[in-house]
Amino acid sequence: MAKIELSAIRKTFDSTEILKGIDLAIEDGEFIALIGPSGCGKSTLLRVIAGLEPQSSGEVRIEGVQVDGIRPSARNLAMVFQSYALYPHLTVFDNIAVPLRMRRHSALARTPVVGRLHPGRAGTERGIREEVERVAAQLELSALLKRKPGQLSGGQRQRVAVGRAIVRQPVGFLFDEPLSNLDAKLRVHMRAELAQLHRQLKATFVYVTHDQAEAMTMSSRIAVMIGGHIVQIGTPAEVYENPQDIRVAEFVGSPKINALPGVVRDDGGLEVLGRPLGLSTPATAGRCSVCVRPERMELGAGPGTITGTVVHLENLGAEAFVHVRVDRIDQPLLARVSPDRQLPAIGSPIHLGFSASAIRVFDTAGKRIEVAAPIRSGRVREKALG
């Protein structure tokens, strides 16, 4: 296992700064996911950790040792790519065996003809075979060892790529969007397999993805990257329930969080679309965004009741979404409901409400605003909501 520490990592390509001072500590045996929109720098950061891309400034430490300038192979990290990077002319066995043969055989012993006569080669090959077969059994690849990549499914090729990484016994694994080439059903299956693999190996996993479902279901922590910065780090539940930046609130969660235009009055009271919410904040008076997750939207009356018109319905079987057009809001609001209930008709008027605990408020700079419910004396309750 390995603790990986990044300090003030910056990376510039030409005149464009991609990474803008990244500080991150990844603990021994942790499964951390780096998520964010395309172009935010997450894959570049992974390549910096691997040593495939030198940082412009900053420091990388693995197990307490500074590794800047050390070649990738010496960092003892295994990387699994989106493309799998398998050798098409080699069998599954030989693909998995490649890193062991590169490490244990001399250049002469690896030559096709002369290498077979090299002293000690047969014994080394027996050891390699034992290790490859052990890893293949662990990944349920034993029956496929004689096949070539072109004869495998996408999920099988992914497992071969993971097996080639495991057989090296690295101190950590780096995954660069490894499931993005798979279909939706197989991605769900492979998420479970990778999570189980992490529990078995107890190794450090750093996983880059733009798919938040992968990050939320597999990792112990997620780091949300936007515009070359890590904007928030926490457990999946913490980041989802308590985003500290509106960009995090809008990126994490599917479908996207509802954002309503709000106002902080001079007396600290909060309003949405001219309706008081019965909440107060010490924030400066001015405009704000009041955000509510679709599953916290209620059809009917509530403290934040607003009126709109149903413009679209989505029944997905296990859940349904009601799209509601509201005056002065550009995008329809979404409410997630049980499909068992009677869904409103398209074009019908409807009331939407939400509880005070469902609200997350952000200022014009996108930063989280603490809010609280006022008590009868006019004072603000000390404990903030959300």
Automatic annotation (TrEMBL):
The function of this protein is: Involved in beta-(1-->2)glucan export. Transmembrane domains (TMD) form a pore in the inner membrane and the ATP-binding domain (NBD) is responsible for energy generation.
Domain named ABC transporter is located at 4-252
The record's listing under Pfam families reads: ABC_tran (PF00005), TOBE_2 (PF08402)
Per UniProt, subcellular location reads as: Cell inner membrane
Grouped into one coarse class, the protein's main location is membrane
Q: Which UniProt keywords apply?
A: ATP-binding, Nucleotide-binding, Transport
Q: Which organism is it from?
A: Bradyrhizobium sediminis
Per the record, the similarity remark reads:
Belongs to the ABC transporter superfamily.
Record GO terms (molecular function): ABC-type transporter activity; ATP binding; ATP hydrolysis activity
**How is it placed in the membrane, per its record?**
Peripheral membrane protein
Q: Which InterPro entries match?
A: AAA+_ATPase, ABC_transporter-like_ATP-bd, ABC_transporter-like_CS, ABC_transpr_MalK/UgpC-like, Mo/tungstate-bd_C_term_dom, NA-bd_OB-fold, P-loop_NTPase, Transp-assoc_OB_typ2
Q: Name one GO cellular component term.
A: ATP-binding cassette (ABC) transporter complex, substrate-binding subunit-containing
Put simply, this protein is called ABC transporter ATP-binding protein
